[in-house]
Design brief:
Helix content is about 10%, strand content about 45%. Strands 14, 15, 16, 17 and 18 form a five-stranded antiparallel β-sheet that branches. By secondary structure, it is mainly beta. The chain has a single domain, classed as Neuraminidase (6 Propeller), CATH 2.120.10.80. The protein contains one helix and 25 strands.
Length: about 375
Amino acid sequence: MSDTEPQQPRARRPPARRASARAPLRSRFGAVVTWLAAVLAVAVVVALSLHAHLPFGLSSAGHTTPPARRRPTGATGAVKPASGRTVSVSAIGTLSAPASRVAAVPYGTGGALFLGGYDATNAPTDTVQNYQAATVTSGAAAPIPLASAVAAVLGPNIYVFGGVGSSAIYELTGTSFAAVGSLPAVTADAAVATVGNTAFVIGGYNGTTELNTIVAYTPGSPAQTVAMLPVTLRYAAAAALDGDVYIIGGATAGVPSATIYRFDPQTNSVVVFAALPRARERQSAATLGNRIYVIGGATAAGVRSRAIYAINTASGAVRLAGLLPRALADTAAVSGANQVIVAGGTNDAMAAVATIYSVAPVSP
């Protein structure tokens, strides 16, 4: 019987008398086959319709997708965990008091030093806090309140840049602060990143106007503007990796941005590199391994975010890597021992918090 014409007769026909006797039987048989085919087609359509409207591969009986249809696991075609998260977040300590927009640097053995910030009443503070092994101790007070300042480690010492109403550069040696220079303008709400022995203070706010400058400072030399951003940026974040500086988000004329710029200190050039999935301001950032992690932030309406984004600087890909336990902006973030240390910040009620978190890679 032909595959294309199932009702085609055979080459040798039976006698006419016998064919006529079997004709009613064949007619009834054909009708039954046609009816069964129609029923089967309806059943298939119903089953596919039910399947299409159930999420995550569940059938109407609540069973998972049959094993034969799952993606294979192993070296090729591996299935990632449903969450897709590559970092975990855990609370590892608390500041001595709630604080936001704190200047921070890596310090000690995998710890961090936190300088100034705004307290729970939104007043600038001069506190210096040393976080080591889940313990916070207080250090010598800064010479002036340091709210919305930034800091960097250059050689053996720590340098603090600007802050609200300030253009000063202070050097912290041991427990002693000394004024060693000044920025070209009063600079608060800036971003900072370090390449070699030079710190780059990026954007910010001078009290009346947003800034679009990139200012370089190397100990022993005066601070100088080395490049200009395409737009003014306040509340951006920055981190360095493989000799380049990545400038992330921030606000221009009060409007948050998703743009990620790459600054090359060798040529002092600034180019658009990638974009965040959502526009952000008041986020923090730090490098861990071969990724830059962007933590929290806020929308134009002030809504805080739990998102932790990972930037792959080799490919330009930006993906969600994990979630904070609660939505935060205005945090401080520094690279620690196989973790990013995230401290303080403001919650959705715009109240300062004191928690210190560890953002660490998920074990394979």
